[in-house]
What we know:
- The protein is α/β, with parallel strands linked by helices.
- The chain has 7 helices and 9 strands; from the N terminus they run βαβαβαβαβαβαβαββ.
- A 5-stranded parallel sheet has the order 3-2-4-1-5, sandwiched between helices.
- Helix 3 crosses helix 4.
Amino acid sequence: MDKSTTNIEKGVLYVVATSIGHLEDITLRAIKTLAAVDLVVAEDTRHTGRLLAHHGVSTAQAAYHEHNETTKTPRLINRLKVGDAIALVTDAGTPGVSDPGYRLVTTALAEGIRVVPIPGVSALVTALSVSGLPTDSFIFIGFLPHQKVRRLDRIESLADEDRTLIFYESPRRVLGFIKELISVLGDRQAVLGREMTKLHEEFIRGELS
């Protein structure tokens, strides 16, 4: 892809939303931005590499995740300061939303570096839009703590909440999580979405039980 087709500013951090599954669920602006920057900072370079290859993008990548963000952030900030344009992506959806990226964004802002959003897919909005649950007001909780006491305390703090609640959970823990929700919140209406936008996309609707 021709890098000259997109106006990219030097020394800017671009926060780029990518697909949550289907490789075509990405904006044209996102593809052009990923092709035009000097570096793509990715949660998993192998995963993002497949997305970039699918769209004919050959920009260099660097890994940035929860295990290296403390050491990697200063290096990336230095690159931005000398004029490199950097795109931040995660494995799925919008960076920083229950995904790595928050530290880099906040550090860049503190250093006076411009941060530009390239909006697109978000798993929470995707799920909410087809849930059939009220969408006029909702709360995004994301992933709860792994430690059971802290997790139950967090659920109990939501017991009187009448807005739609949106959680993220691992497939390996989801059955136990549903039992915890029932024990604290009652057997309320819910929707479980998995593999969204992929071949085996599925939504299960009904009472939690």
